[in-house]
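REVIEWER CHECKLIST
Item 1: Sequence provided? yes
Item 2: Single chain? yes
Item 3: Sequence as submitted:
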Amino acid sequence: MRIIALFLLALPAILATYGIKLMRDAFFGELTDIFMHIIVQFIVGLGLFAGGLYFIGGFILHRDRKRHLIKGGKKKQVFPMRNTCFYG
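Item 4: Structure as written out by the authors:
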């Protein structure tokens, strides 16, 4: 079971790393053969990086919430109704 969890975390990390590589290559003008334009390569790299980061961040957030390591955050204060009518 832990091997599956390790694989599920390693795959998005590898994709995010490849996304960083694609963005770096696009920034320095090195086009990969499977892309037609540098802009497309940069956008695909950005998507891979954002997707990998989103997945890993969501996994860590879910795990911490499950173990009660995250506090509830700020709660919205409810103020009592006041008579704010001014006759003037």
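Item 5: Key structural point noted by reviewer: Residues 77 and 83 are 18 Å apart (CA to CA).
Item 6: Recommendation: ____
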